[in-house]
Design goal:
The structure is a homodimer of 505-residue chains.
Chain A (H helix, E strand, L loop, with lengths): L18 E12 L2 E12 L5 E5 L8 H13 L5 E4 L6 E5 L1 E7 L14 H14 L6 H20 L2 E7 L4 H14 L2 E5 L1 E2 L13 H18 L7 E3 L2 E2 L7 H14 L3 E5 L3 H10 L6 H7 L7 E5 L5 H9 L3 E4 L1 H6 L7 H6 L4 E4 L11 H19 L8 H8 L1 H6 L17 E5 L22 H18 L5 E6 L2 E5 L17
Parallel strand pairs in A: 1-4, 6-7, 7-8, 8-10, 9-11, 12-13, 13-14, 14-15
Antiparallel strand pairs in A: 1-2, 2-3, 5-16, 16-17, 17-18
């Protein structure tokens, strides 16, 4: 271990045909804009790219034949698959979710540690667990493989097609994690945690030299692992957060980001005591954001997690530097960090905001759960401030979970919505799946033959509410990454409407 | 329709043997007190009553034989079943949940109406749906049967063994609802909604005379339906809330409660505009609670839902009258009603508080979800007030979901915990069930052979956190009501450890 790069066959690079998808496609192409596209035909190349989108395609005759005919007439492509869910009002395609803040190594601690604020929580629960990944003997690798496989499987089965992960300080298991991403079929940014200055828990830190050495190992290994033609795994520079990093390390990491053209992720302003600590440790910096800025860590490829208690000046700096925020509402409530004013960040400060599960400060590894919770947390904020305008809508939340996430991970032209040239990183939602927790009634379904388009759209919007507030992983029945089907829960379903053909016309 | 009482065989009255249960039992016998009883043997009579509890029973030899031997030696009972989950650290018995506020008729609207405050939400979404249950032609009865069956099945499969329901103003479908409770096997208090004064939505109200007539029909029918020896279904007097009730009706309902010895449920102080409305409509009453008190509606059998914005004086009155509160955190956040200071109600004001899903103001029909959300909402309250003491613990939440609920529905000696003479209304939780959303790792399990009892208990407490924050209906694998197994999801599970014997020694 780690295994030979040549032995790994990325699941999201497997051989597939050109595929036509026909059905309801829902996405948020821009902030505040929800688009529900019924009867839409989407062509996806064998490389996983969206080739064409034909909205509101309503053949008079049998769907399959005419959709195929459309394709043949227009493209002359003779070999393809065809996938049709257009007849089923409870099924729709959504862009895969993008989780921009998740600690893979903390997955076993989900639900534990409710009673602690951030700094105690780190020492009592988090550092001891992360430390178990260090020392790469066989047993530790087995331990890491067990935890890491589970977290990738879990998030992927919840529709997360891309995530930006924190692992631990250990380089060997971090490389193992990247291999597992490829094997299981999720796009991922892999952040070896960098921290050379852990005053409160000395057992879990590295020297500056070890950090440099580890980062080089990871960058080298991931260059071998990632397929030349596609971004599936990529290192992300990850100073844990200012209090556990020396200035020397911060400076080196800032430089590394430039020389290697690598993205950056870290934490900022999660907890008031943490902010005080940063002020004490960096008295020459006016605020928390300045600490990172001084070390060249703020740029358009930077993800700042939490960002709850920002000053006006910090917000301005974050917008000017084009950084993205990762909002982690479950975590912020669980360990009582605060309620971030996300609506203001989005609409007043014009900052890009995405969503993070923040496992295991956050207890929910599903971005669908985070969509729900970010709305609820915004209601609490609005009740506190008295400003109705602080409330996030369903549309805001879906945007942050998809297109906002795509911007945050630096792939706004490749992920996050249905557009020509974007990757087909997609989930199929089925509100009527086996043992679904969503209950729909016949009169609530937006049927094919509903004459009134407005009425059909309103019904679909209500179903989105049902999905967000009562749905879960059981409703995410298929997941594609890079155009490849990486999750399929419909194998044994009686009402499986999957149609696959490969014909030579 | 309604069907003949003699044709209904209540599922929770079916014939069963005396049964011994052996395993981990977890409950909150009193406020603030969590008891984790490993290796506990519980005997349950054929009438569904807990006959004996033998805690920490650790036979030297094979569990089954010695447990059986214990029973034979001590009881001389020769026919019995034996159920043993003692070897499995991921399984434990909990008292069934008690949902003290749920609108059965609103079940289809779950997840819809996020954008509205209470009074608009009622007019736009709730009244039109409830009105669909009126006029008992065949189609309406079919509609009602579909919705009502689903809500009972859904709550029961989530471990709710008893609930206090609002139906609609319609008596026929309300009686149908009671029949369905018996058929499906859930204990229920059935509240025909009383409202003769709906100023904002005249289509949905009844006359005072109709209300009297309907209530008499329901009381009569439920007396026929409920088995003589057991409280399975019972009418509960339900003035919807003061703004839609005439003084004449309120007075009559208060009197009816006394003459028929029936419990009462209603709403109070959910929303600030609602409180203003009540002040305007009842200028002679100092506050909202006084409106109900003046009409003899506050007593030890009264459940007051929401109770968010109570004055000190109202709290005092509620305590003195020994009413219970039903706290509905998901609803209060969803439609932005407020954050009720529950910790203060419980510990300072000494008011009994229980939990309610408040479907469909609340989006979660599972009391497990309400346990999670009441903790989270209390964190938001604590962040608002700056008082750490406003935070609810896991123990508080479980207490409200079980024993607090038992007190609220007037059955503190029969439900809510494991005690001699109480009914065996119980759920079996399995954290490792098929497709469980809870992830446990081997080192986290409190094993049988763990020498250190404190360590084993701490591990179990952490597992409770995992269950509450990542569990769902999939973890509730069996449910008993009145000692009868009414839900069983383990039929086809490979790791089904259910052992059932009936032997003649």
């Amino acid at each position: 271990m780690p295994s030979n790069a040549s032995l790994i066959e990325p699941k999201a690079m497997s051989s597939v045909s050109y595929t036509l998808y026909y059905g309801t496609f829902i996405h948020t192409p821009s902030l505040g804009d929800l688009e529900i596209c019924f009867n839409t035909l989407v062509g996806v190349t064998a490389a996983g790219d969206i080739d064409f989108i034909h909205k509101n395609y309503r053949p008079e005759e049998h769907d399959y034949q005419t959709a195929v005919q459309f394709f043949i007439n227009n493209r002359k492509n003779r070999h393809f698959d065809y996938v049709d869910y257009s007849q089923d009002p409870t099924k729709f395609f959504m862009p895969g979710f993008i989780d921009t803040h998740i600690h893979a190594s903390q997955f076993p601690n989900i639900g534990i540690g409710l009673d602690c604020p951030l700094l105690d929580w780190l020492n009592d629960y988090t550092f001891p667990l992360e430390n178990k990944f260090t020392d790469s003997n066989d047993e530790k690798l087995k331990f890491a493989k067990n935890v890491y496989s589970k977290v990738i499987q879990k998030t992927l089965t919840n529709g997360t097609t891309c995530a930006s992960y924190f692992t631990t300080i250990d380089p060997h298991t971090t490389n193992l994690f990247a291999e597992l991403l490829l094997e299981i079929g999720q796009r991922g940014f892999v952040g070896k945690v960098c921290m050379d200055h852990n005053d409160t828990y000395h057992d879990y830190e590295e020297s500056f030299e070890d950090c440099v050495d580890s980062m080089n190992k990871i960058i080298e290994r991931m260059a071998q692992l990632n397929p030349a033609e596609e971004t599936l795994v990529k290192p992300i520079i990850t100073p844990r957060f200012a209090p556990v990093c020396s200035r020397k390390m911060l400076k080196w990491l800032g430089k590394l980001s430039v020389t290697q053209d690598l993205p950056i992720q870290t934490h900022i302003s999660e907890n008031k005591k943490e902010i005080e600590l940063v002020h004490d440790m960096f008295p020459d910096c006016e605020d928390y954001a300045t600490v990172y800025d001084k070390h060249n860590l703020l740029n358009s490829q930077t993800i700042l997690a939490h960002a709850i208690h920002l000053t006006k000046k910090e917000r301005k700096m974050i917008r000017e530097k084009k950084c993205s925020i990762s909002h982690c509402p479950t975590s912020n409530t669980f360990i009582s960090s605060g309620e971030a004013p996300i609506k203001q960040y989005l609409y007043n400060d014009k900052i890009n905001v995405s969503l993070g599960t923040d496992v295991s400060g956050g207890f929910d590894s599903s971005i669908l759960g985070i969509i729900k919770h970010c709305i609820l947390v915004s209601h609490h904020l609005a009740m506190k401030t008295g400003r109705q305008g602080d409330k996030l809508t369903i549309i805001d939340a879906i945007y942050m979970a998809t297109q906002g996430g795509a911007k945050a991970v630096g792939m706004p032209d490749k992920l996050g919505s249905f557009e020509l040239g974007k990757k087909f990183d997609v989930q199929l939602i089925d509100l009527d799946s086996k043992e679904s927790n969503v209950d729909t009634f016949e009169w609530q379904l937006p049927t094919q033959h509903e004459g009134d388009h407005k009425k059909r759209t309103k019904k679909m919007e209500d179903l989105l509410g049902k999905w967000i507030f009562s749905g879960d992983d059981r409703n995410c029945v298929k997941v594609w990454c890079n155009g490849r089907l990486v999750i399929n829960k419909m194998h044994y379903s009686r009402d499986d409407r999957w149609v696959m053909v490969e014909k030579d016309f």
